[in-house]
Amino acid sequence: MTSQLTTTDNPVLRVAPASPAAAAAYFGASLAFHADASDVAAALAAGGDPGFVVLDSRSTASWDQGHIPGAVHLPTALVAEQAQELLDPAVPVVTYCWGPGCNGAARAALALAELGYQVKEMLGGFEYWAREGFEFETWQGLERRPADPLTAPAGADDCGC
User: Fold this and answer.
1) What is the C-alpha to C-alpha distance for residues 101 and 15, in angstroms, rounded to an integer?
2) Residue 16 has what pLDDT?
3) Using H for helix, E for strand and C for coil, what is the string for 75-125?
4) 3-state secondary structure at position 55
5) pLDDT (tens digit, 9 = 90+) per residue, 71-115?
């Protein structure tokens, strides 16, 4: 005798999926608020003006350990008092912090949005920037680590997403 699982027994379907229209609205909104490291790297590597500025919202010690080349350094706690000195309000800002376990980039994005800036958060933060094999800058100069095959396909220029 076989048993059939009911949706209440299935942890994935216990809460029914959203309607296609609701899912499209949600995921569309998510993309309006987020970019990933691969897309940011591709836009920066294309040359010319990418149409946005990258903002590292971590501490000076963290910045010195490594940051995205060309990023603006503005710790989250200083956004309200220094953003107008460092950022053009007409240029969208992409914030990042350490990684998925850190909400500093989200807090910096909130502070910037409250000041009237268009802003997105870079998913994965500096951790995924380095793990995907993109060049970064330290106090000693430029560095690059091999791409982690769990975050980027080996030998490919992009993830194909």
Assistant:
1) 26
2) 92
3) CHHHHHHHHHHHCCCCCCEEEECCCCCCCHHHHHHHHHHHCCCCEEEEECH
4) strand
5) 999 999 999 999 999 999 999 999 999 999 999 999 999 999 999
Cα 161 to its chain centre, rounded Å, is: 15
Amino acid at 86: L
Q: What is the pTM of this model?
A: 0.89
Cα separations in angstroms, 113 against 39, 67, 72, 116: 21, 23, 17, 5
Between CA 117 and CA 88 the distance in angstroms is 9
- pLDDT band for position 7 (cuts 50, 70, 90): low
Query: Which of 93, 113, 112, 105 has its CA nearest to residue 62?
Result: 105
User: How would you classify the pairing of strands 119-123 and 34-36?
Assistant: parallel
Residue carrying the six token digits 């809460």: 15
* Averaged pLDDT, 119-124: 97
